[in-house]
What does this fold into?
Amino acid sequence: MHTLITFASFAFFTGLVALGTWLTVRRTVVATTTSHFLAGRSLGAVFIAGSLLLTNLSTEQLVGLNGAAYSDGLSVMAWEVVSVLSLVAMALFFLPRFLRSGISTVPQFLELRFDRGTQVICNLIFLIAYTAILLPIVLYTGATGLNEIVDVQGLTGIHDADAALWLTVWVVGMIGTIYAVFGGMRGIAVADTFNGVLLLSGGLMIVGFALAAVGKGEGILAGLHTVTHAHPEKFNSLGTASQSVPFPTLITGVILLTTFYWCTNQSIIQRTFAARNLAEGQKGVLLTGALKLLGPLYLVVPGIIAFHLYADSGLKPDHAYGKLVREVLPAPLTGYFLAAMMGAVLSSFGSALNSTATLFSMGIYKGLWSKDASEDRVVRAGKYFALVVALVAMTVAPMLAGQTSIFGYLQKMNGMYFIPIFSVVLMGLLLRRLPAAAAKTGLIGGFLVIATGYFVPLVPHVVKGVSVLVPFTDADVMNGFHFLGAVFVLMCAVMFVIMKIAPRAEPWVQAYSGDVEMTSWRGTKPAAALLVLVVLSIYMSFADVGAALAPPPPAAATPAAPEALVPAPAVVPAAPGAAETPAPTR
It folds into this structure.
């Protein structure tokens, strides 16, 4: 009976969103590249913010970040709260420059700034990353979350968990593909806004019901008092050295990753390119920042509550959120939230597919293969390519099931393309004489250096008395986020040196395309300053600097990289006379 009510509620709210979206966009024509990929440059602040928020808040956030909070507590809120600073940077610095050029993609901007070769390299990096990293993770976390909330095995009669996962991935993937290929950017943005309302309200309801469950009849405040006093160490905003986001990394890898994500990640910022003018774009970006400040309430606190309830059960962190939702929400509201989660999965998957189609059709198909292709042919080529990418992603997604922390895996893998692209875009905007050779070096060199650090054992390290080789990012050799920060500085330095040796002949001057009206919103700077102050206040309110800077206990080990990413350590010959002990496996 519970399952029947859940599905009835799910069908009702999903249908309501579909109907609202259809009524809003039914007269929209999507036959041209601008209309299909950029919603005809017609989006206002509310739709921009709604689409930005929901594209970000997919199940890799709901499942993964709450799973990280289950293990590490409040410190993982960095991915939400620090993002607000990056959104401020987007509104004040990056967005005006992007809209001035009237671009559809980040690689297109690099072509205007440097040359065609730089655009092609950036396009290929994005396409590979979205196909092999982003899209599979969205599908896997979506399927995992749905399997946790709804008993898919019981409903289908499939006894094998892996088979149920494959089925869920493919069902969600096929629906998401239809959502992306036929809806266009405007359809995605409108549906995202409606689903965002469901997700925010549903996420906050889960916190309320979960705290009430902890309070055992005495109310939400009693539950909050119980959790905070039972686990005070979980409410430190500053991560310790043994946690996934140590305090010092906030100013190295974390701020770099979030700034790339919100300022140069094509699948996210494409809807800002669709703004009807600069003012609407800035308002939409800053409204997203304000909404992100609520993120810790529904993306971190539920994970801590789940730890309080299930810590002794041996529950895997990435399963904590689904179990909590299933146990605390009444059946009608479970269906309500299931509809919101499905919308979030479809949003992230659809947005990434739409961006993939945009990158391919505008940068590769029209840019290299068929320069004289009609608008209709370009759109059609993008749709066909998106179908192929979707099939690949649906095949790869179930293979991620062995990861220890899917959110940690996502952030780690993102670094391989986040850092090179962000460093090139930033340096290109700041240094007008930076040549194309420097940009190509930054893109290719940064990608190769980070990949080498992730996968190739290079650094001698002693583990249980045995000398082994480990990657740069392993444990106490160098924290992974510090490593990303070091690579960023290295690539910027290399590009600067190349500029000094062989500068661009003439300083680059950005031309105004005339596609977007460029009057800035009058409230941009005051709103940005207020958001920064709120971020600092949140961190100061929950900070325990002493605990964050304390060394880890001697027996504790810093969480290693996910097993699938770390090759077996190569054994270095021991000193003469030492016992020959095989290297430990991870």
